[in-house]
Amino acid sequence: MRRLNEKDLERLVRRLKDIVSDDYVSTSLFERIRCGLDVYPYAVQREKLPYVIVLPEAASQISEIMRVANEFRVPVYVRGSGTSLAGASRYKFPGIVINTHRMDALEFFEDYGFAECEPGCICYDVMKAFEERGAFLPVAPGSKVIASMGGLLSNNTSAHIIDASIGKFSDFVLGVEAVLPTGEIIETGTKGLRRPSGTDLTKFFVGGDGLLGVITKARIRLVPTFFKAHGYAVYEELDALARAVQRMYMEHRPMPLYMEFMEKETASIGYEIKGMSPPPGSVIFFVAIGASQQEAEDKLDLILQSLKKEEPLEARHISDLNEWEKLWSAREVIGSFIMQKNESQFSSAEIVSNLKDLPACMEDVRHFNEGLPLLSQLKLYLFGHIGSLTMHPGVLIPRDWDDASFRKAVVEKFTRETALNLKYGTCGGEWGQFAHRADFFRQRYGETGYNMVRQFKAVVDPNNILNRGVLEGNLPVD
Ligand SMILES: Cc1cc2nc3c(=O)[nH]c(=O)nc-3n(C[C@H](O)[C@H](O)[C@H](O)COP(=O)(O)OP(=O)(O)OC[C@H]3O[C@@H](n4cnc5c(N)ncnc54)[C@H](O)[C@@H]3O)c2cc1C
Questions:
Q1: What Rg value do the Cα atoms of the chain yield, rounded?
Q2: Is the CB of 428 under 6 A from ligand 1?
Q3: How far apart, in Å, are the Cα atoms of 313 and each of 237, 303, 309, 391?
Q4: Is the minimum distance from the CB of 312 to ligand 1 under 6 angstroms?
Q5: Which fold is adopted by the domain 106-224?
Q6: Could you report the per-residue pLDDT of 318-342, keeping only the tens digit for each?
Q7: Is the full-model pTM beyond 0.90?
Q8: Is 306 in contact with 248 (CB distance < 8 Å)?
Q9: Whose CA is nearest to atom 33 of ligand 1?
Q10: CATH top-level class for 227-423?
Q11: Fold match between 106-224 and 227-423?
Q12: pLDDT tens track for 42-69
């Protein structure tokens, strides 16, 4: 791709400053590196660094930026917090980065039954504001203190929440305002509480991998908070744990809101940090929900009935919320703790099983890194959202590896992830479908499926301005 020459770059920057003012346009090398990095360990390449970072405050400004970008034929990358685990925030070409963090308004319309948030709002802040009003935000990622609502909406992740319990994030999004890659602003969906039947434009944006437009506002239904009951089970063998979860589904138990798991050795790390004795086996812990405390406890009993049939070492209610908090945070801190302790970079995959093959898939993820030239040299850690049949096998990539090895390690991880999700006929349910997963998408849905998306994009984005490279794939071999 042709780089902008100095003169054109100067003209571009001037035009952007005219839109958002001098204060909100940066060409500093520091800012360009910061906004060109993602969570992966390999180095940024100078020739791929963004030209310029822009912080708009309104959809109308994004619209103007898009029009200018089309004029200059320069790609635009939308950036929330840059925590994408699918590689969507490591850009393949130099371009304009729109940082959404100035757009952080959150407004409640309780008499309509929804709230509207801008893309730069941080998930945790929105969660807390919902809680203060007795509402539940239907998205709960491990990155909640940093991830932006725009990033989460673009991925359509409900994260730790089990889809089969209350649905996916998009089920609660009544509509969005979005700026198309050519600059038009559109509104989708409804102000009612019933989402459209038939064609619903919202779906092109929520779960759209940032390919078809910039979400500038989302209308989210206010779901009343639930009463919760908490449970815990420990299994000597992972196979029994997998069969217990299968049973929960097969025996039509009320689906828990959350059901997390940690393999024994991985769990011991989290337990140690939280000052608990190591568990005697691999653990699962879960939350049943109801409209009253009694209903939640009754549902928990029903779940436990299934789990107990696979001979756990222990399976019970958790009545002490402190114990629950310790377990939950033990699970959440494992990654960052082992990274700090070992001065390494934690990197995990997202393997999703189908229901029938869960025990076999569990066995496969236990051996996730076997046979891989680089990753097999590293110790495997294993945890995940077992209620969603999702496993996150991960490794610590040593900081002293060279850049070429970092790159190869990331490619190995995604190649094995692809193989396993293809084997089980599934797909990632959290981090989005493109960027490092473009090859997966092509294999899973064929060239016909992939071309459908390419053609949608070509119609909406004829100059391939928005998030260029994400659809084409940007594994670090490219
Ligand atoms: C420690 C850690 C834990 C994590 N835990 C989870 C987890 O439990 N579950 C989970 O699903 N993910 C998890 N993630 C991944 C990540 O946080 C999510 O994918 C999140 O959705 C990304 O948000 P972001 O603001 O960082 O988006 P970014 O990385 O900035 O962007 C992600 C994609 O969304 C697009 N995008 C951003 N804003 C907009 C917008 N306004 N309009 C259109 N497109 C937009 C970007 O262009 C890009 O393609 C985790 C990441 C880390 C580092």
A1: 23
A2: no
A3: 10, 16, 11, 22
A4: no
A5: 3.30.465
A6: 999 999 999 999 888 888 888 888 8
A7: yes
A8: yes
A9: 151
A10: alpha beta
A11: no
A12: 999 999 999 999 999 999 999 999 999 9
